[in-house]
Amino acid sequence: MAYFETFANPRTEQVMAYKGLREELERAYTGRWVIIHDSQCVGDYGSFHDAMAEAEKMGIDVLDCYIRQVGVETPIIISYGR
Question: Which of 27, 42, 51, 82 could form an S-S bond across to 33 if both were Cys, CB 3.0 to 4.6 Å?
Fold first, then answer.
């Protein structure tokens, strides 16, 4: 029997934390950009670029956190190949 190691995306934990905090975040930060790191909201900002800059200032690896605009659904993108 083959052994397969499970790959865990480091953002998965942060995305799940956002989903758990979603109602609270929507009450307080709708339209704002938040940084989710270590399963908690560590800041809210007026733009994506501000959030990215602050994450870097805080020493947070942007690949290890989740930055998203609260209350705005992510678009579904359908790609048609040629």
Answer: 51
Confidence check: pLDDT of 3 > 70: no
pTM exceeds 0.85 for this model: no
| Cβ count near 26 (within 10 Å) | 12
Whether 73 contacts 66, CB under 8 Å: no
- Domain assignment of residue 64, yes or no: yes
Classify the phi-psi angles of 33: left when phi > 0, otherwise alpha if psi is within -120 to 50, otherwise beta: beta
Please report, in angstroms and rounded to a whole number, the separation of the first and last CA atoms in the chain.
39
Residue 75 lies in a domain: no
Domain total of the chain: 1
